[in-house]
Amino acid sequence: MNNKILALKYRPRFFNEVIGQDFCVQSLSNSIKLNKMHNAYLFSGTRGVGKTTIARIFAKSLLCKEGISDTPCGKCESCLGIDSNNNLDLIEIDAASRTKVEDTRTLMENVQYAPTSSRFKIYLIDEVHMLSTKSFNALLKTIEEPPEHVKFLLATTDPEKLPETVISRCLHFKLDSITKDKLSEFIGVTLDKESIEYEQNVPLIISEAARGSVRDSMSILEQCISYGNGNLKYSEISQLLGIVDEKLVDDILLNLINNSMSNIHALLDDNVSNNYYKLLDCLIERVFQISISRKSDLKSYDLPEELLVDTLNLEDLQLWYSILLQAKEDFGSASSKKDHLLMILLRINLFTNYPSNQDIEPKKISNDNKEKNENNIVKKKVTEDKVSETDTVDYSLDSLKKFISSQDIQGLMLDLSQNSIIESNNKCTKLIIDESKKNTYPKKCVDDFTTLIIDYFKVTNELIIEYSNDIFTLYKQSVNEKLKSQDDMYNSIKDNTLIKEIEDVFDAKIDKENISKL
Question: Per-residue pLDDT averaged across 505-518, rounded?
Fold first, then answer.
């Protein structure tokens, strides 16, 4: 009985067993056939895609007793020694535990010695980006011009941390993440070899959870085999891996489209999975698929027809995508992931420009509410006899300040008032909002603010909403005043004798930006 873990048991030993890295494998095979071997090779890529494995197979091809070949025998002393990590001419170094320059110098001193029993001495340095700057400097000259019997194989998950001088001396192979289809096929073959029963879609959901890593897929597979007791059922494995049900994702988005937050709240309460971060990822992916499908009429995503209705503008879907994506940044700091996701969906609901015949929450309107609505409508309609055509209305920033203070505006609407201006001509009146705040204010907030403007300034013509970067608002005015105040205070103290003495003693400078009144 083989007690090896699956990741080691099914680790490729020859080039033809490597999956998903055809470009790298073909390039190395051809270089061996043409006898065009470089001094140093660099393999980079995410975890578990085959960097160290390919390096070992390449070393096996160079050290095989049967001769240099892209198909080593796998039976000679050299090949078996590499498979068992016991070949004296393949020196494997973990750079993460040997970062000091002294270790590298000791290594380089041994480079000059000939191989023990093979034609080459090969140094395989794993996680090479962990070496210190001095270690890289000690390595440079040897990598560029090593003895004829020495080859360097470097592997890293973070090539950005390597000096350009090192990368330029190597043949760099960038290994891709393994596609879900290839990984799923490999998992299925492994299950068949292990004589494990499984339902049809189990390999696919395991490959999705592995996120392109073969090693991770084998680790997850072992966990699933233990949990399923040798019989992998889709429902059980989905629950184990925290797979989000597509129906839940579609139901949430459908209720967002139909403007029903109460149903969304109920859906999250009934959800048995606690993987809300994964649910957020699924919502992001679904909004992307809906947007692309509606814009290009693609049918490849196999979406329900209810999600492709044109009830919402594509601009609103872009807003949804942006809000969901930005919400990932602070998701980890939320104490309740479910409540945080609910607030994200509520934010989307408030910012979405739904058709006017839809209500946020359908309710039966009482007679009192009807009277209030009618009064609001009457208040918005300002007749022309309230102000004569010869009257001019002052829309200056000072006038806007008086308007804000008289209306007791607070919260988000106060921020809106600080970042907008009002302009008027004979044809229309414009509320111009700072372009950088375009996605900040919900439609209801803007509508309520315009209602106040119409009532206070007695606007008789059409009121239009516009966005612009080139406006001088109350907020920008306050910033300028603060800067001017800081300049004045700085100028008043910069030549002070005591201040100059303090600067000389401590070799310091006054931080103008942090000057404030006490």
Answer: 64
